[in-house]
Amino acid sequence: MLSTESLPIEEFVSMQMASPQARAIMNTWPLPPERVEIVVLQYFQSLGIYTVAPFGQKEVLKEQLLRYLVSSTELADMIEKARRASLKEERRNKGEA
Length: 97
Hints:
Elements: E1 7-8, H1 9-17, H2 20-26, H3 33-46, E2 51-52, H4 56-71, H5 73-96
Helix pairs in contact: 1-3
């Protein structure tokens, strides 16, 4: 049975972040999925989106969420910083060995 009620954006983002498509994108990222979810939620809220209509809007926002994951400069910066920190930690650990 299809729901005809709007979904809070928090629930929508949480559900979409658990999707196979989103997980495949984030699979190699050195960021916790919870942190990425917060950034994505803030993105939608910054656009003034607080609820998601059950039909057409849901599909459009699903596609927008996936595009945001692959094109967000904020996420790209976070990923780069996490990778640099990881490399720095590895070098430090090799120096101690």
